[in-house]
User: What shape does this take?
Amino acid sequence: MSEGGATPGATSGATPGDRALDAFLRLVAGKGFAAVALRDVAQEAGLGFAELYRLHSDKVSLIAAFLARIDSEVLAGTPSSVDPEETARDRLFDVMMRRYDSLKPYREALRALRAAALHDPLLALAMGPSLRRSMAAMLEAASIPSDGLGGALRQNGLLVIHQAVSRVFDKDETDDLSKTMASLDSRLKAAERWSQLFDKYTINRKSTASAEASDSPAA
Assistant: This one.
């Protein structure tokens, strides 16, 4: 048996890309990120090194593939229509909890990746675009716009929430991830309050600017 045990979801008929990703996650879970080389992944996956290199030229590419896999699993569970009774916060809570459910089988690999990013700022920087894409996908799944300046702010805000909740998730051994749910709910409520205050401030600023413009004498 490989170090780290079998990767959840791995099948004997998996594509070379899936085999490479499953092998990478097994090795990272068992040895840590820094100790794993691309050649190790190729050997573990039963692939030639050139074949693996065509798929993934570095380990950051494998991390991006992992995040994309999780994104796909979460998006597959997204309802086709929006429930009018649900708030945006409720929808985002459901989406993010589906994400943590999908991540649960990979917890050891995640811990190793987070530890590596904590000690390697360049790795953390390289992972940033993929993480923000994931957060954009989660926002869109919750029917919350992720484009433009406002969308960029929402992506970064959700990423900050996700990173904080992930520290709870790492240690949450409850079957229903109740500790993770409580942490996520608390942080989303706080973010909602700040968003409401920001919207109120923006509206007031626009009203003031409009009033000042109407009071100004014509040129």
